[in-house]
Design a protein that fits this description.
The chain is mostly helical and 87 residues long. The chain is built from 5 helices and 4 strands.
């Protein structure tokens, strides 16, 4: 599945991946779009959820960073069925 991200969300994704799983930077180095299968989208969403929990909440509510992380998770569409089944 091809995912197009605004520059600000791509930068956030790269920042989170660099801090939490640097070996995965190759997955997110394309600026214009990401080609990710279902498993990779889910794995990235797990990373983003870790980041949301660690740095995206203030008093159990999303702060500015948390809102951006939530928007990024929405863009990755982890709930979408396996691409082979959908196509």
């Amino acid at each position: 599945m091809e995912i197009r991200l605004p520059q600000s969300l791509h930068a956030l994704l790269r920042e989170v991946v660099a801090a939490r799983r640097p070996a995965w930077l190759g997955l997110v180095d394309t600026v214009k779009s990401l080609n990710l299968d279902h498993e990779r989208r889910v794995a990235l969403c797990h990373l983003l959820t870790e980041e949301l929990s660690a740095n995206g909440l203030t008093d159990d509510s999303p702060n500015e960073r948390g809102l951006l992380i939530e928007a990024l998770i929405d863009r990755l569409e982890p709930w979408r069925e396996n691409d082979l089944q959908a196509g």
